[in-house]
Amino acid sequence: MDAAKQPISRLLMVGPPGSGKGTQAAFLSEALGVPAVSTGEMLRSAVAARSALGERVESIMQSGALVDDETMAQVVQQRLGEADAQSGFLLDGYPRNLGQAETLAGILERLETQLDIVLVLDVPEEELIRRALARKRDDDKVEVIRERLSVYKNKTEPLIDYYRDRGILSMVDGFQAVDSVTAALLGEIRKVGQV
Ligand code: AMP
Fold first, then answer.
1. For a substitution probing ligand 1, which of 13, 24, 42, 43 has the most ligand atoms within 8 Å of its CB?
2. Closest atom, ligand 1, to C-alpha of 92
3. Distance CA 185, CA 172 (A)
4. pLDDT tens digits, one per residue of 124-137
5. 186 alpha carbon to ligand 1 midpoint, in Å?
6. To bridge 46 with a disulfide, which of 53, 83, 144, 146 should be the other Cys (CB 3.0-4.6 Å)?
7. What is the C-alpha separation between 181 and 186, in angstroms, rounded?
8. Is the minimum distance from the CB of 67 to ligand 1 under 6 angstroms?
9. Is 149 in the pocket of ligand 1 (CB under 6 A)?
């Protein structure tokens, strides 16, 4: 281990719908021993539980649009304040736009911490559509897939430059076998710190 390298325990994964982000986030969280914080999963659980939050977000999720920033800020602030997230976390699905990225920076500042690395999964659009059509989830109908991809392109992709400017961005080719993607992600993490 390189003594000069800092431990990597606060990670963010960014990737379009169908990039394998959720699968990779689960592997990495296990490998690094930090909780995966997936806002999509949290919202789907809220919908399944018929909670007030679930009732509020259900139709928005079904349309492929984004839930409002204020609601998401509350969800994430609360989750990152929980005990298991104090020594690290792997965020998946938040932030989704530049406003949320600024909100996250504020939340982390109040917790006196910051992101160590932002991992972006890069997958060609034709492959994303092919994969999405092969999946069966409620929000995976063709028009919803297009909406989700367009939301990603217009609102989420600007995060790539945002985090590149902050010097914490790593891009990984997500168009490879699942194991190879995991290995590439771990490789990027080891390049910048101890794991
Ligand atoms: P995901 O599983 O990350 O693709 O999220 C599924 C859906 O949940 C999205 O299409 C949005 O409707 C909603 N969602 C998840 N995370 C966010 C977020 N950070 N901001 C707004 N909406 C979100």
1. 43
2. 3
3. 7
4. 999 998 888 887 76
5. 25
6. 53
7. 9
8. yes
9. no
pLDDT in tens, 72-99: 999 999 999 999 999 999 999 999 999 9
CA of 64 to the centre of ligand 1 (A): 8
Q: Ligand 1: does its nearest atom lie under 6 Å from the Cβ of 79?
A: no
DSSP 86: T
Q: Is the pTM of this model over 0.85?
A: yes
The residue written with tokens 């910048």 in the block is 192
d(CA 32, CA 116): 13
For residue 117, the 8-state DSSP code is: E
Chain Cα centroid distance, residue 34: 14
Instruction: Name the residue of 37, 96, 97, 135 whose CB sits within 8 Å of the most ligand 1 atoms, as the mutation to test its pocket.
Output: 96
